[in-house]
Amino acid sequence: MTTRVRPRRGDPALGSIALVALGLYVLFIVIPVIMSGWKSLTNENPLLAQADFVGLSNYTEMTRDSDLAASLSFTLLLAGAVTIVANVVGIGFAMLLNRTSLSYRMMRTVAFLPQVLSGVVVGYVWRYILARDGILNNVLVSLGIIGEPITWLGSPRLAMFSVGIVAAWVLTGFTTVVHLAALQSIPVELYQAALVDGAGRWQRFRRITFPMLAPGTTISVTISLITMLKLYDIIAVLTSGGPANSTQSTALYIIQLAFTDNRYGYASAVAMLLLVVSIVIALSVTALLRRREVDL
Amino acid sequence: MSRSRIAPQVAPAPPRNRRAWTRKGHLVSAGLIILAFVSPIYLTIVNAFKTQDQIIRDPAAPPVPPTTQNLTDALARPDRIVQIGLTNSAVTVVVSVLLIIPLGAALSFWLSRRPARLRRIILAGFAAGLMIPPAVILLPTLRILTFLHLDHSYAGLILSNVGGGYLSFAVFVYSGFLRSIPGEIIEAATVDGAGTLRIWRTIVMPLLRPATATVAIFLSLWIWNDFMNPQFILGPLHGQTITTGLYLSVGQYSTNYAQLFGVMLLAAVVPVAGYLALQKQFIAGLTSGATK
C-alpha cells in the first residue's frame, strides 16, 4: 500500500501532510491490530518473562473459557437491548419534541445533555442514585411501590439491568436528535395525503413516519451498537464488572486479562475476537438496515 | 416504559375545540417526561450546592439556602486535582484537535484527488477505525509508545489521539463534505497556477469550515471525556486529566456526597457549558451526517 500512496507531481507538500496523517493512522491503528493478531498466537506474559509462539492454543482456550462466554453474551445482550430501548425511546422522544416553539427546542437541548457528560460522571451520578440508601430506593419505598430497598447494583441480574438502563439513558439523547432530524425531513404532503385518505394516527405512524425514519434509524442503530460494543467507562465506574463478573463487558475482560492477570497473549486473542465480532455486527446490521431503506 | 412515552403522539386526534387544551397538555406531558429523563443531571446540580446533611435529608430538594462550600472545598484540595485535571484536559484537547484538523483535512483533500479505487481502499481502512473498540488496540498502543519513549506522557496520549480512531472521524466528515464541493472551483484555481497546498489552504479549508466546526466540536467533547486512554497511557502516577482525576479522587468520597457532587460539577461544567454555547452547531453537525 505504501508504495502506491506516493505524492504525485505538482503536489509534494500537500501529499507529505497527507502521508504524515496516513503514517500516524498506520502506526496507531493498523500496526496495533496486526500486533494484536501476532500476539494472540503467543503466550506473552511480562511477569513470567515468556513470549513463545503457541499457535492457535489461545483460540482453543477461548472455547473453554466460561468467563469469556459470560462477558461476550453480556456484551451482546447489552448492545442489543440498549440499542432497541434507546432507539424506541429516541423515536418516541423525537415525535414528542417535534414542534418548533421555544419550549420544545429547549427540551431538545436538555434531552441531549446525558450525551455530553463523561462516562465517569454518569457512572458516579447513577451509582449514587442506585445505591441501597440512594434516592431511587427512597422514592420507591416512600411511594409504597417496594417494601424493602433494592440493591440495584448488588445482585447479578439487577446489576445487568441497571447498567443497561444507564447506558440507554446516555444513548437516548443521541437517538432522539438523529430521529428528530429524520422526522423533519419527511414531506408534509405525505401526511396531508394520508389525512385525505382518512388514515388514523397509528396508521400514519405505521405507514409514513416509521418507514420514512429509516435512514436516520440506520445511522442511529449502527452507532448505538458500536458504542455499546466498546462500552468501558460507565461500567468501570458503576460496577467494575461485578457482582460476580455479571457486568463484565468484553472490553473490561480484555483490560483485566492484560493488566490484572498479565496474560498479554490471551488478552490479544480475546481482543481479536471482539474486533471481528464488532466489525461483523456493524457491517451486517448496516447492510440489513440499508436494504430496508432501499425497499421503501 | 418506552410505550407510555410514545402514547401522546399515538392518541386519537382530539376534536377541534379541544385543540388549545391538548396543545398545553402535550407541552406539560412532554415537559414532565423530559424532566424525569434528565433528573439525574438535576440531582447533580442541586446537590453540588447543598451540605451533606441536606443531601441525605432530602436529596431531590432545591438547594435552600445554596452553599458554595463544596465547590470551594474541591478547589482548595491540597492535591489541586480539579485545577490540574482541567488544565491537563484542556491542553490535551486543544493540541490533539489542532493536529487532527489539518491532518484529517489535508488527507481527505489529497484522497479526493486520487483514483477512485485507491480512495475507496483507504476510506474503508478508516471506516474500520471507527468500529475498532479502543480496548482491542490499547495493549499494542502502549507497546508502541514505550518503544518511542513516550509512555506515561502527555505527548504519547496526544500522539495516540491524533493517529487513532479520532482521525477516522475527521477523515469521514471531511471526505463526505468534499464530495459536495464542485470540482470546478478547484480546477479554476489550478488553471490560475496555484499549487495544491496553496489551493488547500486558501480555498478548500475556508469551504470546509462547517465540517471543521463539526470535527472540532465532537473531537473536543470525546477527547475531553475519554477515560480509557488517559487511564492507561498516562498511568495513575503521571498527572491526571479531569476524568481520571475524578475517578481517582472520588474513591475517598464514597460517603461524602457533598464533596463528590462538588468535584463532579466542576468536572462536568466545561463540556456542558461548551455544549450549551455551541448546541446549534453541535446538533447541525450531528444531523447532517444522519440525513445524508
What's the quick description here?
Chain A has 296 residues and is mostly helical. Chain A is 73% helix and 0% strand.
Comma- or semicolon-separated keywords:
heterodimer, A: mainly alpha, B: mainly alpha, 0% strand, globular
Query: Level of helix content of chain B?
Result: over 70%
The portion of residues assigned to helices of chain A is over 70%
N/C terminus separation of chain A: 39 Å
- General form of chain A: globular
Describe this structure in words.
Chain A has 296 residues and is mostly helical. Chain A contains 14 helices and no strands. Chain A has helices at 12-39, 57-64, 66-97, 102-111, 113-116, 119-130, 135-142, 156-184, 188-196, 201-212, 214-229, 233-238, 250-260, 264-295. Chain A is globular, with a radius of gyration of 24 Å. Chain B has 16 helices and no strands. The longest helix of chain B is centred in the last third of the chain and has 34 residues, at 257-290. Chain B starts with a helix and ends with a helix. At the A-B interface, helix 1, helix 3, helix 4, helix 5 and helix 6 of A face helix 1, helix 2, helix 3, helix 6 and helix 7 of B.
SSE layout and pairings?
The complex is a heterodimer of chains A (296) and B (292).
Chain A (H helix, E strand, L loop, with lengths): L11 H28 L17 H8 L1 H32 L4 H10 L1 H4 L2 H12 L4 H8 L13 H29 L3 H9 L4 H12 L1 H16 L3 H6 L11 H11 L3 H32 L1
Chain B lengths: L1 H9 L8 H19 L1 H10 L3 H6 L11 H7 L5 H32 L3 H16 L2 H14 L6 H10 L1 H14 L4 H9 L4 H12 L1 H17 L2 H7 L7 H9 L6 H34 L2
Helix pairs in contact in B: 3-16, 5-16, 6-9, 6-10, 6-13, 6-15, 7-10, 8-14, 9-14, 10-13, 11-12, 13-16, 15-16
